[in-house]
Amino acid sequence: MEHTTGLAEGVDPEAYRIGQKLRNIRKFHDFSLQDLGERLGRTHSSLSKIENGLTRPERTYQLIGPLADIYGIPAKDIVKALYPPDGPHPVPPELLLSAHVADVAEES
């Protein structure tokens, strides 16, 4: 179980959970926030906000395709890391509608 107690006021636990997963993926691929921000055309502080749960998940989903391209992996692999098929969190419908991850629904 992931640690979400003691979150700052206004931090959505789901946004925090997603941000922590994305942080783990970024670190696994050996990117700093600065490097990844440059590749995405975003500031490192905006990425830090995502990783710390300060950005709505719906806005974060827009980055899955570009992140997958940068990491050289299929977008569905990121989605599966965020929403494991055997996990307690179902893939949100708005994410399934994304062209980058349409095939995830077929596998679930």
Offer a concise description of the structure.
It contains eight helices and no strands. The protein has 108 residues and is mainly alpha-helical.
Which short descriptors sum up this protein?
single chain, 108 residues, mainly alpha, 434 Repressor (Amino-terminal Domain), 57% helix, globular
Structure notes:
The chain is mainly α. It has one domain: 434 Repressor (Amino-terminal Domain) (Orthogonal Bundle). It contains eight helices and no strands. The longest helix has 16 residues. The two termini are 22 Å apart. The mean pLDDT is 86.
When the domains are counted, the total is 1
Per CATH, the architecture is: Orthogonal Bundle
Decide which structural class fits the backbone. Answer: mainly alpha
Rg for CA atoms: 13 Å
Distance between the termini: 22 Å
What's the CATH superfamily, by name?
lambda repressor-like DNA-binding domains
Major sheet attributes: none
- DSSP helix fraction: 55-70%
Organism: Actinomadura rudentiformis
Protein name: Helix-turn-helix transcriptional regulator
Domain HTH cro/C1-type: 22-78
GO molecular function, one term: DNA binding
Topology:
Layout: H1 13-28, H2 33-40, H3 44-51, H4 57-60, H5 64-71, H6 75-82, H7 93-96, H8 102-107
